[in-house]
Amino acid sequence: MPTDESQAVSRSAHAPAPGALLLCRADPDSVAPLAPLLRERMLLTRAGEWSVLVPEGTPWLRGGEPVDRVLTGWATALAVGSGWPVLALWWDADRAGYTLAAGFRRPVGYVWLADGTPAGEGEAMRAFAARLGLDPVRDVQSLDRLTVPDPGADARARLRGLIGVLTRAGVHLRDGLAPGEPADRLREVAGAGADVRHVEDAGGDGEAQGGTPRAHRLALAEVAVGAPVATWGVRRRSVRWAVVGAVLMVHGALELSYETVFPRD
Q: Could you tell me the CA-to-CA distances from 158 to 14, 57, 97, 167, 206 in Å, in that order?
């Protein structure tokens, strides 16, 4: 007869691994220059009138930091460095949810337990709709349905319901690129698109280095984004994001000072 411990191990072995999608309300050309600031390898592709970033490298979770905190940091870093909203969708074995970041405003989000039980505040949904300019009647009613108990809808179904509402705001994810899918499946689908771009870590070698125009733009972006990210990390008591913000500022400043001393021909 299996023990409680062996049953727990078995459940853990079959539990879905953490996953994430990062949706940006901008075209890939606008997202590509800022995406390296996340310092993660990503796949970037179009999602209708939006763009979607899929983590490519593994592992992207470090030090046991919860997936929702990592994704909130990513969304905030992109939003403060751009003029468009960023929506992070995330899930793990126990919960799923979203975080919407827009400029310097406090991010809003909602959480469901794995079985679909709502664990957020309805006001967050209304703030979500307002920030994205969704229909205050039809879309808000659809979002409100995601905040009431529904025995037939698990967390994955809730996120898909959210995406369904967002189709009216221009979001179109290709088949297989959906919340709850395994990470390797997401990478496979995103990587198969003809328009896919591979986003490299901002600290890597190659085109982003050596005093190119792209390096100059990236350095300016690092300085501009680093300060608010560091401030956000301190306020949220996230050592990781406070350090990331500081590193971005220092790295960007060093790149700009290098160009001043050794200007391009």
A: 21, 27, 9, 15, 41
